[in-house]
Specification:
50% of the residues lie in helices and 2% in strands. The strands form two sheets. The chain has a two-stranded antiparallel sheet. It has a two-stranded antiparallel ribbon with strand order 3-4. It is globular and about 55 Å long.
Length: 414
């Protein structure tokens, strides 16, 4: 999810050019001194209504939407101002920008709206309820930028990719649309996904590619595979445990159906997770590292298709190993783990000993119930003397009344 979104952003940045100047880390001994000098630029501040404190330029709406989706699965109602902030990021045509610093200004040709942030916002707004106008307008925009192959790219007009197509399928389904009926030139999103699935014969059989490479070859991508399984099932970012079914093998059978493409993708993920219980991130020039985000996505995908038992091993690995990653990565990471717990029926308030809900809530404005409780506490104890001062007063008064009643009972002394 969060990792998938970052990959899509990177791909979009390559297409549209450098959207922001690169910032190189200064490792010189004088860096700290320079940062604290009067002439050093002030650290940017971001809206208090936004979850997380890192630069939201490319993922503001995405992480806001995931955070609220995760909260909704556990019955937490986000602060109204957090929802209002999300709504301000929508342009008049229905598309959502990742982050509009000046939400009061009209969107123009320079405003970078995209399918991923828009689709995530649709899913969040539908889940929260009461925002039909905004979600309907966003769905209309998504339909307007569908590619001729039936899929979607990250940016309007960009080549279709598995991740973007899948998250849009989730938005369509959440909004009550039938993804199979949303077509361009006779092609649906499922047609686009099937063309991005690798055949079972050969290496990485059953996996999904993000996009074909420059030569048109499909290369397996674990992140895209998790997304492709959900998309092929017509599922969104939030899923409940599927019906328990035995693991299925990858089967070609000609041009696969969407259901078979999902089964094939799940078979590939199961094999990739079999050894260590986690997926691996491979970057040129760097040692392979566990990929926490994609592993969480795989848990959701496997559980959606075959039930909680199919995702037990990677879920247990996440419970034991993801705490540090989530703390460093912020709200979207906490949301991913909550959604993985939800998909398997696990308790996100006791996830390897951690309360993911509490940790997520702490990254943004206090939810409605928490804010109400805080206000009630202030109301109950808004005296400068405190509760025990009142207790003391009542005790003194009670003692005085006791003496008075005692004297009345005894009557005048002889």
């Amino acid at each position: 999810m969060y990792v998938r979104h970052s990959a899509a952003v990177l791909a979009a940045a390559v297409v549209i050019g450098a959207a922001a100047p690169a910032i190189a880390a200064d490792s010189s001994p004088s860096a700290s001194a320079a940062d604290s000098s009067p002439s050093a630029p002030a650290k940017p501040t971001y809206p208090a209504e936004l979850y997380g404190t890192t630069d939201p330029t490319y993922d503001g709406v995405w992480r806001q939407s995931l955070a609220m989706l995760a909260q909704d699965t556990v019955g937490v109602k986000p602060a109204p101002k957090a929802v209002d902030w999300l709504l301000t990021q929508q342009c008049a045509d229905g598309g959502f920008a990742p982050y509009r610093a000046d939400a009061g200004a009209d969107c123009d040709a320079k405003t970078l709206v995209d399918t991923n942030n828009t689709a995530a916002a649709v899913q969040a707004l539908v889940a929260l309820g009461g925002h039909d106008a905004a979600s309907s307008k966003a769905v209309t925009w998504l339909k307007s930028v569908q590619n001729k192959d039936g899929g979607w790219g990250y940016m309007p007009g960009g080549a279709s990719d598995t991740n973007s197509t899948s998250v849009v399928i989730g938005a369509l389904a959440a909004a009550g649309e039938k993804p199979a009926d949303v077509r361009k030139d006779g092609q649906s999103a499922y047609d686009a996904l099937n063309k991005l699935a690798l055949p079972c014969k050969g290496d990485d059989g059953g996996a999904f590619a993000f996009q074909p490479d420059k030569k048109g070859k499909l290369l397996a991508n674990a992140d895209a595979t998790a997304a492709g399984v959900l998309g092929s099932l017509g599922k969104g970012l939030v899923v409940s445990p599927g019906k328990e079914t035995p693991a299925a093998d990858c089967t070609d059978g000609g041009y696969p159906s969407s259901q078979q493409a999902a089964v094939n993708g799940a078979a590939h993920l199961t094999e990739a997770l079999a050894k260590d219980g986690h997926l691996t991130s491979t970057l040129p020039g760097a040692e392979d590292q566990p990929d926490y985000g994609n592993t969480a996505d795989a848990v959701v995908a496997l559980a959606a298709l075959s039930g909680a038992d199919a995702a037990e091993k990677p879920l247990r690995w996440l419970e034991q190993n993801s705490a540090k990653w989530a703390k460093q990565s912020g709200p979207a990471a906490y949301a991913q783990l909550i959604l993985a717990a939800h998909a398997t029926g696990a308790d996100p308030r006791d996830f390897g000993g951690a309360d993911l809900v509490k940790q997520l809530n702490a990254t943004g404005p206090a939810p409605q119930a928490a804010a109400k409780a805080t206000n009630e506490e202030k109301t109950k104890d808004d005296s400068p003397f405190g509760v025990w001062w009142y207790v003391g007063i009542f005790l003194v008064v009670g003692i005085g009344i006791g003496f008075l009643l005692s004297g009345r009972k005894k009557g005048p002394q002889a």
